[in-house]
Specification:
47% helix; binds manganese (II) ion
Length: 201
Amino acid sequence: MSFELPKLPYEYAALEPHIDARTMEIHHSKHHQAYVTNLNNAIAGTDAEKLSIEEICKNISKYPMPVRNNGGGHFNHSLFWNIMAPSTGGEPEGELLTAINTAFVSFADFKAQFAAAAATRFGSGWAWLLVKDGKLAITSTANQDNPLMDIAEVKGTPIMAIDVWEHAYYLHYQNRRPDYVAAFWNVINWKEVARRYKAAL
Ligand code: MN
C-alpha cells in the first residue's frame, strides 16, 4: 500500500483573492505530490507501508530523516487543505469558541497569538492550534515537523494549521508573510476545525 495525493475539496481558484490559484496549484500538485512520492520511496519495503500517516508521525523518532520530512509534509498538507474553504470569513462557534475563550481569553487574543506564532517561526515551518491534555494550545514547528510527532516540543492533536514556508505565499505576497497570515483568517473552515476539536477530545 502506498500513500496518495488527496484531492483538494475545492478548485485551485476557490480561495482567491486570499490565496491565489497559481500558488494553490503548485503547492498541491507539485509540493504536496513530491512529499507523497518521496515518502513512498522512503518507506518502500518497510513495515511503515502498513501504517497510517498518523501512526508514522507518532513514532517519527524511529524513522530516518526522509520519512520525517516527507511524512510530515504529507500529514501537514492534508490537514491544511481541509481546514480551509472558499471565503468563509466566519468565526468559530459553540464548544470550539468556548474552548478558545477559555484558553486565550478571547477570539481576538487567540488570533493575535496564532499570528505571532506564524510570524515568528524563523525560516520554513508551520503554526498550529492543537489539543493538548484536553485544552487548546498554540505552537509552531520547523520544516515539516508537527505536534503529533514524538520529537515535537509541544505535543498534541493538531486541529488547525498555517503553512509558513515561502512556497505557500511568495508568488502573491513575496516577503510579506504577515499579510498572508492576515488573509488566512478569511478562508478558515471553522466547521472542520470544530469537528477536529471534538474528535481530539
Ligand atoms: Mn507547503
